[in-house]
Amino acid sequence: MTRSNAYRTLIATICLVLAAPAVAKMYKWTDNEGNIHYSQIPPEGREAREIAAPPKVRPQQAEEPAQDKTAQPEGEESAKEPELTPEQQAEREQLYRRNCDAAQKNLKLFQNARRIMENGELVIITEEDRAKRLESTREQIEKYCNP
């Protein structure tokens, strides 16, 4: 066998060995205490159900946020808001006040400064980033300062 054929055979063997776990079977079974287990080897003396491997996620899918099917359309949020106890209402008002104060401080910062501390480092922000942050901060002020 020539050297190039030996390399081809070696590479093909390595590929086959590495691909074997990708097609391994998965089993789901329950123990005596009712705990659910997943394994590649079915347990002896127990009933195990073979399950399909979860679908692979493409990088584009991983970056897309999942759509919440239970989310309410905009404008209906306040209509179905649960009733709060007086203690919960007081905590919520205090949280809103703190968020409002923080948003107002951020607004002043983004209006006046071009450099900000981010993760402990001084960062110069671009005009585009600054505009986005200003818009986000104004939305937070609208939400927390004018409930």
Report what the structure shows:
Residues 15-66 form the DUF4124 domain. This is DUF4124 domain-containing protein. Residues 77-97 have a biased composition (Basic and acidic residues). With 147 residues, the chain is an alpha+beta fold. Among the domains are: 23-52, no CATH class; 86-145, no CATH class. The protein is built from 4 helices and 5 strands; from the N terminus they run H-E-E-E-H-H-E-E-H. The protein has helices spanning 3-19, 59-63, 86-112, 127-145, and strands at residues 26-30, 36-39, 49-51, 115-118, 121-124. The strands form 2 sheets. The chain has a 3-stranded antiparallel β-sheet, with no helix packed on it. A hairpin with a 5-residue loop joins strand 1 and strand 2. Helix 3 (86-112) runs antiparallel to helix 4. The longest helix is centred in the C-terminal third of the chain and has 27 residues, at 86-112. The relative contact order is 0.07.
